[in-house]
Amino acid sequence: LENVSYAYEDGGTDVLADFSYDFTPGSCTAILGETGAGKTTLVRMILALIHPRKGRAVVYNNDGEAHELSALTRCNFVYVPQGNTLLSGTIRENLKLGRLSATDGEMHEALHKACADFVFDLPDGLGTFCSEDGGGLSEGQAQRIAIARALLREGSIMLLDEATSSLDPETEQRLLRNLLESSGKTIIFVTHRLAVVDYCDRVLKM
Ligand code: DGT
Ligand code: MG
């Protein structure tokens, strides 16, 4: 992001003002900041759901070619949004939204990485039904299934927006370690929790 500024249509003041940052390939960055600081706005800009009013937002490849962020660059990103995002259906159906062709074995692997092994102990396992708001599951359980779903997706840059807010600190740290060990992905991790910072290469305070 190069000197980007952004204000919401009806919002008045700039949420991002002359903001620059390079999320370098393979790095894990923790984004911290109080509520309303603009963390989710930044995530939306990276996904090209909103566009800078000033400045430039690009993704670049190993040859240094830069492409303006747009709907076309979005396929490089794997996004776990803030809040509950499971749909009504079985856990298997929810995971298949990550990758339609995923096998049960691949789903097991993703669930394990996402610290969601509890699924294997449910009487119906992957066939367990969840309602649209994740009903029947705890918030922390729903969050881990959402992360497993993201892990099944292709895309080398992971964006997690408070995706682990309902987990206890030990599980959150274990999950983050799993993500870092296995992926080789670039990780952008929005969090309120300072303890997580120890596992990230870089900290961006907004
Ligand atoms: P959080 O999730 O509560 O920790 O807060 P952040 O850091 O994710 O904040 P963010 O980016 O959602 O909001 C930054 C500012 O922008 C805040 O003053 C609220 C405002 N804002 C966010 N979304 C919208 C929107 O869709 N329309 C308008 N007008 N303002 C918005
Ligand atoms: Mg937010």
Folded structure, characterized:
It is globular and about 55 Å long. The model has no long low-confidence stretch (mean pLDDT 92). The chain has a 5-stranded parallel β-sheet, with helices on both faces. The protein has a 3-stranded antiparallel β-sheet with strand order 2-1-4, with no helix packed on it. It is an alpha/beta fold and 206 residues long. It has 6 helices and 12 strands. Helix 3 (104-113) crosses helix 5. The structure holds 2'-deoxyguanosine-5'-triphosphate and magnesium ion. 2'-deoxyguanosine-5'-triphosphate is lined by residues 8, 10-11, 15, 33, 35-41, 82.
Structure summarized in a few sentences:
The protein contains 6 helices and 12 strands. The protein is an alpha/beta fold and 206 residues long.
Q: In percent terms, what proportion of residues is strand?
A: 15-25%
Major beta sheet, strand line-up: 7-10-11-3-12
Biggest sheet: strands, sense, closure?
5 strands, parallel
Bound small molecules, by name, code or SMILES, are:
2'-deoxyguanosine-5'-triphosphate, magnesium ion
Alpha carbon gyration radius: 17 Å
Report the mean per-residue pLDDT as an integer. Answer: 92
> Cα distance, first to last residue?
14 Å
Structural class: alpha/beta
Compute the number of helices. 6
Gross geometry: globular
Helical residue percent band? 25-40%
The number of distinct β-strands equals: 12
- Can you write the helix and strand succession as a string? EEEHEEEEEHHHEHEHEE
| Low-confidence region ranges | none
